[in-house]
Amino acid sequence: MNFQTVIILLVFAAAVFYVGRMIYKSLVTKKGCGTNCKCGVDFSNIEPDQTAR
């Protein structure tokens, strides 16, 4: 096998791995909270009658 063919195969394998990893991360659910659920935010020091500015 040519050296150039080996390099092209390695680049192709890296691209397939990258795309596969992106697809896997988008399909697998997270174990923790969802995004923007604010369950980890501490609201204990905010008064309920304050309005947003």
From TrEMBL:
Instruction: Give the UniProt keywords, A-Z.
Output: Membrane, Transmembrane, Transmembrane helix
Residues crossing the lipid bilayer are 6-24
Q: What is this protein called?
A: FeoB-associated Cys-rich membrane protein
What is the native source organism of this protein?
Mucilaginibacter robiniae
